[in-house]
Amino acid sequence: MTNSGDIFISPLASAAKFAKRWLDELPERGINPTQDIAQVRAAFGDVLPDTGVDATEVIERLGTLGEPGLMAMGSGRFFGWVIGGTMPAPLAADWVLSAWDQNAGAPMLTPTVVALEDIAGEWLLDLLALPKTAAVGFPTGAQMANFGGLMAGRGEVLAKVGWDVNVAGLNGAPKIRVLVNDERHVTIDTALRYLGLGEPEVVAADRQGRIQIDALKRALEAGSGPTILALQAGNIHSGAFEPFQEAIDLAHQHGAWVHVDGAFGLWALASPKLRPLLSGIELADSWATDAHKTLNVPYDCGVSIVKEPSALRRVFGVEASYLPSEHDAQLWPSEKVAELSRRGRGVTVWAALLSLGREGVVALVEEMVETAQLLAAELRKIPGCRVLNDVVFTQVSFAFENEARTEEIGAKLIADHSIWISGSYWQGEKILRISVSNWATSAEDRAVTIAAVHRAAS
Ligand SMILES: Cc1ncc(COP(=O)(O)O)c(C=O)c1O
Predict the structure, then answer these.
(1) Residue 385 located in a structural domain
(2) What is the mean pLDDT of residues 409-431?
């Protein structure tokens, strides 16, 4: 096989055909997959052939047989979990990135990708009003961005008490206390597991899911030694933001490292109107967010931000005989996240931000919030429907007269196929939850959504 461009063109043309069909149909198609995993497996066949199939035929099979098992997550009527769609520029940039096939782990490998990721990082810090000297890395998602921030924190709080975890490990190390909001996202707990830090100490949250300052104060005063506090910007049920200023001031008085999980909510900082809700967040030590959620770049792309770059180099820096022994003053991409060889995901962030411009980012975020607030207002008019949260950001949690009725309406909504709203459990109650995370959600999508809830509730 030769590696000439021609042999790529036919499969790429086939890929473009299927992508076009999917994207054309997305605004109208039903949301739910129409085949389950067993049906999809049966359609594709699971016997590896002895001889290979032509590349174009591979893509033809993928496009035709794969579609029935897809969830229309990019639809403006999909409100499940916190997922987000994709915009044209980052999607197309992702294709170019795949064709370039760059390993973005080290600067001498790929100046273009590293330069674009650096620019994207600087633009992000500027848009989110976070410290300009912070390091910005692009891991797979907020899970790994939470891991990165907490990993840097673990290294720093132990270094402060004279313990080098890189050398001595955790056996016999001073105990690290990790304090978390009772309503933290589960990825904080998994990150702590990866880090060998075990279960955190839970601090009570209020009715909107914000950490309670009195409880935090008591918890901080009840112990001593190396401490990490994990806060969140954007509760998955309420969208609420922590009282950052007070919480971070308190934690810093106790020498703690403060990490903020802002998987979708950190983007509120891009809006001058919303920014006051997160006042003081810039004082934290590390922040995690996703570009594949609120910024609507294709999966996957998280963003890991650490105020003090040296804290990252301390934990992620590597030395190997085949790498230059003197690293630059500037961190390598591989020193910002828990990956060495990696995809240059930040290029999709660069493309998204360039295509939106500063005003476009503000509009993207503010329109999502407006959509959530308009949906909440319409839901409140439906007999028996209770909106449970103050809709300060993109999340709307609601329930009906009793759990049986909420469950019944939830099941009807899933069976409706015109929208996707899924259930959850929040503050002792089964609920339904809307997450507005897609740039494409229109007034018409809103109307279809409210009509579907009316139908299910009638
Ligand atoms: C608040 C919060 N943190 C972390 C995550 C994990 O993000 P990811 O799945 O991109 O790793 C999510 C996902 O929805 C989230 O909502």
Answers:
(1) yes
(2) 95
Alpha carbon 209 to its chain centroid, in Å, reads 19
Number of domains comprising the chain: 3
pLDDT tens for 290-316 read 999 999 999 999 999 999 999 999 999
Rounded to 5 degrees, what are φ and ψ at 216? -65, -45
Q: In terms of domains, do 178 and 273 share one?
A: yes
Residues 209 and 282 in one domain: yes
Does residue 77 lie in a domain region?
no
Within this chain, do residues 182 and 232 fall inside the same structural domain, yes or no? yes
Domain identity same for 388 and 337:
no
The predicted pLDDT at position 329 comes to 73
Which atom, in ligand 1's list, is nearest to the CA of 261? 3
Determine if ligand 1 sits within 6 Å of the CB of residue 235. no
Whether residue 348 is found in the same domain as residue 451: no
- Cβ of 242 less than 6 Å from ligand 1: no
CA–centroid distance, 443 to ligand 1, in Å, is 27
- Please check whether residue 120 is in contact with residue 347, taking contact to mean a CB–CB distance below 8 angstroms: yes
Q: How many residues are there in the chain?
A: 458
Burial (CB count within 10 angstroms: exposed 0-12, middle 13-18, buried 19+), residue 300: middle
Would the CB of 14 count as within 6 Å of ligand 1? no
The two three-digit tokens of residue 444, written as one number: 């018409």
Q: Which residue has the tokens 């004279």?
A: 162
Give the Å distance between the CA of 57 and the centre of ligand 1: 36
> Is the CB of 72 within 6 Å of ligand 1?
no
The model's confidence at residue 325, banded by pLDDT at 50, 70 and 90, is low
Range of the domain at 231: 94-352
Measured from the Cα of 300, ligand 1's closest atom is 10
CB 261 near ligand 1, within 6 Å:
yes
Give me the pLDDT at residue 328, please.
Answer: 67
pTM, whole model, 2 decimals?
0.96
Task: Record the tokens describing residue 431, joined without a space.
Answer: 């609920």
Between the CA of 279 and the centroid of ligand 1 the distance, in Å, is 22
* Cis peptide bond prior to 54, omega within 30° of 0: no
Give the confidence band of 330 by pLDDT, cuts at 50, 70, 90: confident
Q: Are residues 169 and 270 in the same domain?
A: yes
Tens of pLDDT, residue by residue over 177-199, are 999 999 999 999 999 999 999 99
Asked whether the predicted pLDDT for residue 43 surpasses 70, the reply is: yes
336 lines ligand 1 (CB under 6 A): no
Is residue 155 pLDDT above 80, yes or no? yes
375 close to ligand 1 (CB < 6 Angstrom): no
Which of 83, 184, 287, 290 to mutate for ligand 1's pocket (most ligand atoms within 8 Å of CB)?
Answer: 290
Residue that has been written with the tokens 């030395």 in this structure: 319
Domain identity same for 384 and 453: yes
